[in-house]
Amino acid sequence: MPQIIDGKAISAQIKDEVRAKVQELKAAGVSVCLAVIQVGSDPASSVYVGNKKKACAYVGIESLAYELPEETTQEELLRLIGELNGRADVNGILVQLPLPKEIDENAVIRAIDPKKDVDGFHPQSVGALCIGQPGFVSCTPAGVIQLLKRSGIEIAGRECVVIGRSNIVGKPMSLLLLRENGTVTVAHSKTVNLQEVTRRADILIVAVGRPKMITREYVKEGAVVIDVGVHRNENNKLCGDVDYDDVAPVCSAITPVPGGVGPMTIAMLMHNCVEAADAR
Q1: Looking at the whole model, is its pTM more than 0.85?
Q2: What does the pLDDT look like over 175-185, one tens digit per residue?
Q3: CATH for 30-113?
Q4: Which candidate, 49, 23, 26, 19, places its Cα nearest to that of 37?
């Protein structure tokens, strides 16, 4: 049987560490505050925003919620971000994606002060990661690194394959694995002989966005498999990019969906908020 990597337990551990740090900061007269902006009422976004509020309440971070109507203009959104950038009592600013198609996501991400960019999406944050400088790291890839480390899985010297090259997961994931001295290959939709590439992996990280695409044919015996995907199947049950039942018997460790990578994203967001407050 493979090791089941328990994201719920590890994220709870991180949130408890964050909670202790928040209390320490409060004792020193420093409060921590996260501003969350949601434009429109996308149901999945509303769930995520609700979970972020609950996590803030648990760790002791104040949260400001800005729930803006669908018809909010880009100028109005940028004005609000500008106001929050200027507020000394706000440590982190998060704009829930996706935004309505009339709004340029890149312009919105660039408008956030990099010192408050707790999502780690600002070009300055990404550039800092590329050259090994301090800065905020995108929460999902940062969470994956914590899952591996806290599960006793060695990254240094291991063959790591990341399937997916998105700005939010794939690219920062590959950079973080490099930072941990992994040997990294990034595979994507144009990769030739994908199964040959993925079967080299000691650590396979899947962020491809297709339900149950990865079966045992893609996985080397004894590999560690991290599934970043989240989908609803035909029975409305959550599943990932990995066919868990097919892959689990051949790997040494695997994340389930739900309960694997998902809880880590919010835990690392809380961690970034505290880092922002501490730095100020």
Answers
A1: yes
A2: 999 999 999 99
A3: 3.40.50.10860
A4: 49
